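Schema walkthrough. Field components (list of strings):
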Amino acid sequence: MNLIFYYITGAFYGLGTMSHLAYVVSSRRLFYRIGQGALSAGFVLHTTTLIIRYHEGGYLPLTNLYESVSFFAWGILLVYLVIDYRYGIAVLGAFVSPIVLTLVVIGVALPKRIIPLHPALMSYWLPIHAICAFLGDAVFALTCCVGIMYLIQEHQIKSKKTTGLMRRLPSLEVLDEVNYRSLTVGFPLMTVGIVTGSVWASYAWGSYWSWDPKETWSLVTWILYAVLLHQRLAMGWRGKKVALMAIIGFVSVLFTFLGVNLVLEGLHSYAEWK
Amino acid sequence: MMEIIVVGLSHKSAPVEIRERMCFPDGGVERPLRRILSLPSIREDLILSTCNRFEVYVIAGDIDDGTRDIKDFFSSLHGIPRKELEQFIYAHEGQDAVRHVFRVASSLDSMVVGEPQILGQIKDAFSEASRHGVAGAILSRLFNRAFRVAKRVRTETSIGERAISISFVAVELARKIFQNLEDKAVLLVGAGEMGELAARHLIAHGVSRVTVTNRRVERARELAAMFGGDVLPFDRLPQALGHADIIISSTASRHHVIDYATVNGVIKARKNRSMFFIDIAVPRDVDPRVNSIENVYLYDIDDLRDIADANVKEREKEAHKAEAIVEGEVTKFCRWYSSLETVPTIRLLREKVEAIRRKELNKALSALSGASEKERNVLNAMTSAIVNKILHDPITVLKRSDQDSSGTILADAVKELFRLDDVGPVEKNDGQKTQNRDTGE
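Field assembly_structure (string):
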């Protein structure tokens, strides 16, 4: 049953993605509205699947890759809806919805079996760690999208090409501001995520830090964003440089999130529990 | 039959000396509206008066009478003889009049295609005419439809969207770099006319901090006073550059007034906050290499003009789309309008013919005093069949003529041929008379 909801959610996101892309191409406001409606409907349904999953499993649905991917997609859409509410950047949907859709489609292909929670994972630190980490990553996903939009718009204005896309993309100032604000939200989230993860690790495995691949790469990612934030605040980095770094940072996030699991083995591996 | 007629003059047909004589002495449009309505053939009217256009829209009982009456009205308005007036005014009727009002409302007939003011002006004209009760059902329908067409054109084409003058292009660019112009500072270097215009537009869009600098202090003071800004001594330009977000430069200098090294230093001091240089001077005031500095955007006059030209071409393309939308709507409207004619005409035709049939049937039946029930039925059926078969083709053609705009012509012809306009009282079987139909002329 829950699976059907998940598929329907995917269908809504698919409709939302196509509508938003149609909006960017044609600039007919109707497509934007359909896209938002579809994404919102999908979001509600998606939230429902998470809640149901929580009840079915008895704990936060974040233990296997499918659940993580689903939650990540949900988190990205949540952050997008917040940014849309606050800034109303219409074309952002066209950049974000494909990511959400891709994640959900990947989730469809993953095994969905609810694995009973290993005793090592039982702790209230788990949900805090997981939620902070995922939401932090979701925020950085948006920062990356905004960074891409910034680079496109900056190139248009610099090279004096005034295509339709330039008119529909928001101003550089807005894009840069969203970049900055999302950093101030995402970075603390990520930091708390790592710290609580460390606390949880000491509880579950006896040591605060084991240089597990995921831990290592999280640290790398954290350092990247710390550098970015520092450069913004202290060195006056602005615009193109921070947009690029936001994209690089998110690549690191993706690797930490997916690449480590798929490529490397370790404590965070979902395949086996030592 | 009601005819839609528009008579008027615009910037396309008459010079301003003639146009300016078409205004109302005390600004009141009520009296002219009523005067027009009092003319014998006029049933509804509306006056549209803008600086570029003076038009009278009417619904008249007869095209020629109506057109002549309105032209006489124009002539008498400020004593311009008819003959002299003829070369300046245009008149459209029927479908052409509908097309005209749709095009005007959609700004396709304006001096600057895509301008937004005309729609508001037409709406005002319509509400005046409604208020004084001179615009009736048909004009209401026509103008409400015109507003919808204008809205369609505005939303489905980008006809009004792009800036086509250099200063507006500059403002548009500024807003793509800086979201909010209100807290931005503009520095105006030099005293060129276009620079002044650009500054004026930026202020109109929210900029409140303006600094003016010029080799000639007097001129700087003049401009600063005009914009409510400050004066900067010209030799302090490099130092003050860092405080400006938007720099408009239009000096007469033969050399670069703002060079690469200066801007490079300034942008660092500004912690990389963006700068937008609008260099409209020829020869250019700002070193072109400045554009390669990150977070600095430099547009010279050719760049701005290229954008403006590209936008004009876009508008022309959009105007084509708009014309297509208008044509479709004209057809739809005319179909509705002519259906007003064919439906009652068909009914009148049927009624008249039925009345004749009954009368003749009764005459025949009373002559055949011994007719049986069966014989009466046969006669009834026969006369009905004859009538229906004869009417079938004309009525089908009339109904189908709704699809093109020949409906009104055919309905008129039918009314004339069958004298449907003056149907007199006819005896029916039970002695009731059919009413003398008033066809609403």
